[in-house]
User: What shape does this take?
Amino acid sequence: MTRTAIVTGAGQGFGLALTTALAARGTTVLACARDGARLRGALAGLPGVVALPGDVTDPGFRSELVATAGDALDLLVHNAGELGPSPLPRLAAYPLDALRGVLETGVLAPLALTQLALPALRATGGTIVTLSSDAAVEAYEGWGGYGSGKAALDRLAAVLGVEEPGLRVYAFDPGDMRTAMHQRAFPGEDISDRPEPGSVVPALLRLLDEGPPSGRYRAAELTVGAT
Assistant: This one.
């Protein structure tokens, strides 16, 4: 049976690379991002992909996403995120309004979207993936805002995996990647040594294919295991 997936933050970076890979497998992908022009341009010509521009912090848009997916939904990927201010500020000077935005996009919106999608996912025995980061488990100067959001999202995924034993719930840490968000975290620096997002996608596909128990998984470990 063809899978139906929702991928948030699909207009660029890892979300776009994942959407492209899923579409190549015959998955019907509902791809969303805030920038509609970029999203439609990036996804033009991809078979089985529906571009749905919108903001996951908008309750109406979340309802539209889930309604469009319908009962066939069996994969929900929470890739959309918010870095916060750039350059990254120390916590002593972190603007609280900016932190609210980070948490709204990276924690509350994924939970709200999951709540709406759970009936369909339970019926299909589906999978939920949240994008994690090493900043969720390691203390890096300047990463307190973004890292706290990712740590909270990790905890939500862990508890959801216990509360929903019929689902697979994965917190997936892709590691450093050459993305626009990563560049914003290091303004003016050369990040060309970071891997392209497309090179990390196979690790997540392997996770989805093998379907291990719910938990937190690192792309580096999955890649090593594959070799």
Observations:
- The beta strands are 4-8, 28-33, 49-53, 73-78, 127-131, 168-173, 215-218.
- Residues 172 and 217 are 5 Å apart (CA to CA).
- The chain has a mean pLDDT of 92.
- The radius of gyration is 17 Å.
